[in-house]
Fold FMN hydroxy acid dehydrogenase domain-containing protein.
Amino acid sequence: MTYYYNGFPQSEHDEKLNLINVDQLEEDAKRVIPEGAYYYIASGAENEWTWRNNTAAFNHYQIVPRALTDMEDPQLDTEFMGIKLKTPVMIAPIACHGIAHKDAEVATQKGAAAAGALFSSSTYANKSVEDIAAAAPDAPRFFQLYLSKDWNFNKMVFDAVKKAGYKAIMLTVDALVSGYREANLRTQFTYPVPLDFFNRYLGAKGEGQSVAQMYAASAQKIGPKDVARIKEESRPSYLY
Amino acid sequence: MTYYYNGFPQSEHDEKLNLINVDQLEEDAKRVIPEGAYYYIASGAENEWTWRNNTAAFNHYQIVPRALTDMEDPQLDTEFMGIKLKTPVMIAPIACHGIAHKDAEVATQKGAAAAGALFSSSTYANKSVEDIAAAAPDAPRFFQLYLSKDWNFNKMVFDAVKKAGYKAIMLTVDALVSGYREANLRTQFTYPVPLDFFNRYLGAKGEGQSVAQMYAASAQKIGPKDVARIKEESRPSYLY
Amino acid sequence: MTYYYNGFPQSEHDEKLNLINVDQLEEDAKRVIPEGAYYYIASGAENEWTWRNNTAAFNHYQIVPRALTDMEDPQLDTEFMGIKLKTPVMIAPIACHGIAHKDAEVATQKGAAAAGALFSSSTYANKSVEDIAAAAPDAPRFFQLYLSKDWNFNKMVFDAVKKAGYKAIMLTVDALVSGYREANLRTQFTYPVPLDFFNRYLGAKGEGQSVAQMYAASAQKIGPKDVARIKEESRPSYLY
Amino acid sequence: MTYYYNGFPQSEHDEKLNLINVDQLEEDAKRVIPEGAYYYIASGAENEWTWRNNTAAFNHYQIVPRALTDMEDPQLDTEFMGIKLKTPVMIAPIACHGIAHKDAEVATQKGAAAAGALFSSSTYANKSVEDIAAAAPDAPRFFQLYLSKDWNFNKMVFDAVKKAGYKAIMLTVDALVSGYREANLRTQFTYPVPLDFFNRYLGAKGEGQSVAQMYAASAQKIGPKDVARIKEESRPSYLY
């Protein structure tokens, strides 16, 4: 079934994926997600030279199996910054999961928790940090921060994520303005569904805004002093 | 002519191949072998990155000819572990030759013997080690072992291959579970024809099982002690 | 609207380009510029091996962003040979801009000035150095010189560019004859519109000549003494 | 016009080629030469890995132009083993030019002489060494030798090429048997027109033979003693 938000078709459909690999998932997704939204997920900046070269470089990290180790049933569980994980996988912070499904980050958090992976939530999530946390109360999660020019907004964010039990704040320092994402320009992409923090604080829902417009609200000038101030004002509970 | 085993079409056809190179043989085979069975032979694990890179790396071993050597009619015969071979080629152990022809490993052993190559027979062969040996009594051959969790099964295997005159046991240590073979998953491949050792010992013929199910009967925990025990229990006749 | 010069269609159309990247501009241009003229702009010498390898090599100069620099609104303005530029971009000297638009180098100079880039004008420009200068009197510009066999022609050129306020002369030393441009040979390209200096001095307008014919008027023998003589005879005003 | 020799169409057509590059010539030739004959010229051994890699490696020898050399009208004339050449190009020895044109090596020698290049003639030429020499009496040329098992044949060849004024004998030492040329196997290529030396000496014309059959008459066992004997028996005139 498909739900329409201001004309944007959002899937409400739930079924087990017959998933063989990620490339095939990308092809399958392309058939069901509107073009502009699909490329918001699946494209990179400029002519994607860096993206392609990153992928090629990553493929050269080879997993070399060992033999005759006298070991049965190897486990993938690990520990990251004191957090126990069943699998060494972290869901990177990605804006606006609502493009792919109406349950947005709530659904992704549930899946991550089921797999024992670490979830991380973007400042530009559709769902509230409280709803995401409630989806899997015992699972660990991080919060990704686009620092705002407005420290009142920042403080409100810190308080909300602390209260919701997020384990850490990940500060974005290499994307202070939007990348020159050519596929988004070609499709004239704007966020089709509301983003929680914008709705809550700015009275603007976020949807209908381009990526570049969203970034305009963020701080472009970030230095070591800002990091110190974030640390001070957020006082992450796990440090005390 | 084609024979049908439980609906799976098995060639009974014999003719001299007009074979120019191996790539062309692969194309020709694709036209006559059912899709799932074809990809059991012709595909690799995951997205085949390792397979492609292995092939590329292998191509860099260059055969550099020498000139003015005053030599006529060079011979390719060589010796491998004390075994004289007319050609430095070994048929790698491959499961279930019956996919390609009803005579399965019996036919492959005949061809290998005619070419003076060393044949090696998989634990998952369709034909019995005795029938394979009878196909070319004087030709050398090895046996590939997926160690079973059940040492009674292992002992039965050792006795059978020794009695059949196999020269060596090749222990598989790097494939204790099935590879994530995407092409097999896509075609939902199961072994279409019976495998001798499963039929003989387990009362299960093996056909209708997926590759993953087959591996489940194998030992996943293998270490140096297992190697020593295999050596002791198999007591290869050529060492005495 | 399109203007016809001796049958060659020259665009008079002005509109803001909806430009996403340069590759797309190249595709768009291919649709509106006649084939021979398009390849005069878009092709390289021989089988374009050097061109492709230059592009690949250039892509390996990577722009690595820094983070946490406490800097806002970074500026691209720079200084090149004492000339202040708003952007570190220089328009390379290219012959015969009239292929792309009737306003030719006058339009390119206006665009370069608007962007704060350095313009450079080819000896084979369609427009006069005076008209180009008048298009953006305060903008900096260089003049590219194909040295003529005829020093009277050269002196005339020096005087004209000095009077028009050009800041420097760029001497071409690596293209004393035309490159073997295969695409131009295939389309039998000749300059379709007049080139100012040929018109002014030689009484020949230049159009209807092949690239090879144009080069025949240039000096093929150039050495350090010619560089000294150019320096002496041109006495660039910014040195005094 | 086309001449037919035993059903093989041989061009008698002469016209100036509108030749832009060698790749285009190869495409043009493919349209007029029968398939098997075309691939005799245009294919390599095995799966052409070495051929492709040789071409790629050769492309890395870069011709780097110098500038400001004060030189006009550079000349390409050079000297190779005491022979003056107008151009540093040598026509490699290739069998059976008659595939491409009825005038065969006589025409190629004329073209090489006109360009000032060094021609070299294969043992498997269609035309006699005397006719090739007569086509350009003053031009330099070499003779390529597939050494025969029969030294009477070899002596006859030496005497003929010396008398015809060939400057050197090039001994093939790295192709004592035919390469595994897959394209020739696929098209079942046999020489379609007579080869002079086979006609003259063996009473067999050579046509209708496969490349492998031709090589069978050659010596496969060649060492330093053979080189010395060739030197002694051929006594190249330019050494005395």
Remarks:
- Residues 151-163 of chain B form the longest helix (13 residues).
- The interface with chain D takes residues 20-21, 23, 59, 65, 67-73 of chain B (CB under 8 Å).
